[in-house]
Design goal:
The protein has 6 helices and no strands. The chain has helices at 2-33, 39-65, 70-76, 83-110, 116-136, 140-143.
């Protein structure tokens, strides 16, 4: 079960990153060009929100079934882990949750904006911040096979 969830979490991350990049780029273009926030823009932002929340759900399941998650912290403690182990057991999940919180805030705030430019701005800022946080804590050496 662990290997299936790990594989799902790893491959779903490609979709999450792709849709987040598209959502942020779309919001920046919409903000800069002053275009109207239409249903296509809404769908792109909504799919990014849904994909990131599904990734969080898969990640939480993985965290509690993985030997590198909660069990590593309880077995070794915070001082007994290497930098790579700490990344998987603490930093990656914590920063991922923060990123999804920012993305959710962006979704919530964009709906309350009076102008299309401000709606695009909220999506661009909060989704962009979430994307940067996610990229900062990816286990690149495992993901790229280094």
């Amino acid at each position: 079960m662990y290997s299936t969830i790990k594989m799902l979490h790893s491959y779903w991350a490609y979709f999450v990153l792709l849709i987040l990049i598209v959502a942020v780029a779309n919001a920046i273009i919409g903000f800069a060009s002053g275009k109207k926030f239409v249903s296509k823009d809404l769908r792109i932002s909504l799919f990014a929100l849904i994909f990131t929340h599904l990734q969080l759900l898969i990640g939480l399941i993985l965290y509690f079934t993985s030997p590198f998650g909660m069990s590593m912290i309880s077995n070794r403690g915070m001082g007994g882990m290497s930098a790579a182990e700490r990344l998987l057991a603490l930093e990656h999940p914590f920063v991922g949750i923060l990123a999804i919180i920012f993305i959710t805030i962006g979704w919530s705030k964009h709906k309350k904006q009076q102008t299309d430019k401000r709606a695009f701005g909220k999506i661009a800022f909060f989704y962009g911040l979430g994307l940067l946080l996610i990229l900062s804590r990816l286990p690149w050496n495992q993901w790229l096979g280094l």
